Amino acid sequence: MRAIFVVGGVVAAVALCGAQSYRADVDLVRIFVTVVDRAGQPVTGLSAKGFTVKEDGAASPVVSFGEQRVPVSIVVALDSSLSMDGPRFKRASLAVQVLAEALRPNDELGAIGFYAVPFLIAPPSTDVRRVLDALPNVKPTVGGTALYGGVEMALDYAAEAHNDKRAVVVISDGNDSVTKRDLLAIREQQSINRIKHGDTLVYGIAINARAENGRDPAALFSPFALSRLADPSGGWSQTVSVAAEIPDAAVNIRDALDHQYLLGIEPKHRGDNKYHRLNVSVSTCKCQVRAREGYFAAR
Q1: DSSP letter string, 15-55
Q2: 72-257 has which CATH code?
Q3: What's the pLDDT at 174?
């Protein structure tokens, strides 16, 4: 049995989970953790004792721990600019279907698209057909790529979803091309700060495959545009060089969301309205650990 209430990336009141009891009278920073082996496969069956969490370099005890899968709300941010036309967009749509097929009854799926402006495809819902039926009506459009606007709209809809665990999956082949070049770094940082203020996991599928045309400025590919957004959240970005690999990248994200640990720590600097660094490690295996890089201790 469990009860989770979230404000600004902090979980308040974690009840019982399995045989271990948890304190319900304090606010806990929750951390979704992905652990993979050298082959990139999820590592399961680890105990709380194997995890070490540091906040601003100082050890912070893990006071709540869970491994079981919890319902997730996923919002896909789908690049619909003209450079995505052809096999790229067909495979990207198939990737959305891959995510949909793996969802369970209480999971939600939503989607937004973006070219020169972001737009809603379908809001998060347990009825995944709402997304899949709407996708054929989305056509790649001329006008540039509003990457950051698309990501932030996806975050908005994820925040309105019903599940406490939320993820945004961005599928794109380029940088933001609607923001003036001298403002790109500022605009990117705005999106990163938005991600840091919450606990929504962000994943990217960065497409470096041959485009049908090169008329969209966003065809100037940058493999780091999505990783800079995803890494602070505890997610990651994958670069694919062939359009046929896009659905496989979605499988990797799906597997990660299905096999994550949930750790809770008591914040050391509650309410100071500052960003605090987190580091999560595992001592019981030679594994790669992915977790959010920090949290804001909101007032």
Answers
A1: --BTTB----SSEEEEEEEEEE-TTSPBP----GGGEEEEE
A2: 3.40.50.410
A3: 75
**Counting Cβ atoms within 10 Å, is residue 7 exposed (0-12), middle (13-18) or buried (19+)?**
exposed
Alpha helices in 137-294 (DSSP H): 147-159, 184-196, 224-230, 246-258
- Give the Å distances, CA to CA, from 142 to 79, 117, 135, 177: 12, 11, 18, 12
Residue 150: predicted pLDDT? 97
Residue with tokens 């485009």: 211
Q: At what angle do helices 246-258 and 87-101 cross, to 10 degrees?
A: 20
What are the backbone angles phi and psi of residue 259, rounded to the nearest 5°? -135, 75
Dist CA 146 CA 62 (whole Å): 39
Distances (CA, A) of 259 to 27, 240, 281: 24, 23, 17
Banded pLDDT at 1 (limits 50, 70, 90):
very low
Its pTM surpasses 0.85: yes
Torsion angle defined by CA atoms of residues 45, 46, 49 and 55, in that order, rounded to the nearest 10 degrees: -140
Residue with tokens 């594994």: 287
Structural domain boundaries in the chain: 5-68+260-296, 72-257
Backbone phi, then psi, for 220, in 5-degree steps? -75, 95
Tell me if 204 sits within 8 A of 238, measured CB to CB: yes
* Mean model confidence pLDDT for the chain: 87
Q: Angle of helix 184-196 relative to helix 147-159, nearest 10 degrees?
A: 20
- Quote the tokens at residue 235: 């997610």
